[in-house]
Amino acid sequence: MTRSSSYLTTTADAYDAVAVLYAELARDELAQVPLDRALLAAFAEFVQAAGAGAVAELGCGPGRVTAHLRDLGLDIFGVDLSPVMIDLARETYPDLRFEVGSMNALDVADRRAGGAGVRGRVRGGRPDVAGTSRGRAAVPAGPSPLARTGGSVR
């Protein structure tokens, strides 16, 4: 196992261990953070105005932000490293597409995603993990916001 894949396995295992509790605690979070909702609305408006196509929410967790962006009119799917998070997302939002995957190895053709969103903390300070495929998958000049909540982006 490579160092990167070992790191990803450890990260996925950690999120799997807290997924159910996290989903319960964060269920109504967006209702309490108007600035985040405004950023997400602006992102959705930008993607729609650009006619950019499908959007990948990277690190989608239990899917609540993916569902919110869908409700704002985006063609969106979620990707998360944690299989348990993806199971919760699929159970809660069966009408949306969710995939287990890593943002450094997205199963999206080059330049085929209309945008990519990462909300929350990007942990670990690993530039090889935190954006390689995100840039590859997005359309040229496609939107890719990084919303910072609850702490610094590392």
Overview of this protein structure:
The chain is an alpha/beta fold. The chain has helices spanning 3-25, 34-50, 64-71, 83-92, 132-137, and strands spanning 55-58, 76-80, 97-100, 115-119, 146-147. It has a single domain, classed as Rossmann fold (3-Layer(aba) Sandwich), CATH 3.40.50.150. Helix content is 42%, strand content 13%. It has a five-stranded parallel beta sheet with strand order 3-2-1-4-5. β1 (55-58), α3 (64-71) and β2 form a beta-alpha-beta unit. It is globular and about 40 Å long. 33% of the residues are buried.
Brief characterization of the structure:
With 154 residues, the chain is α/β, with parallel strands linked by helices.
Beta-strand percentage? 5-15%
CATH C-level category: Alpha Beta
As laid out across the biggest beta sheet, the strand order is 3-2-1-4-5
Average pLDDT, rounded to a whole number, is 75
Largest sheet: 5 strands, parallel
Number of helices: 5
Fraction in helix: 40-55%
CATH architecture: 3-Layer(aba) Sandwich
Shape: globular
CATH topology: Rossmann fold
Q: How many separate structural domains? A: 1
Series of H and E elements: HHEHEHEEHE
Structural class: alpha/beta
Query: pLDDT under 50 segments (min length 5)?
Result: 120-143, 146-154
> How far is the N terminus from the C terminus?
24 Å
The CATH superfamily appears as Vaccinia Virus protein VP39
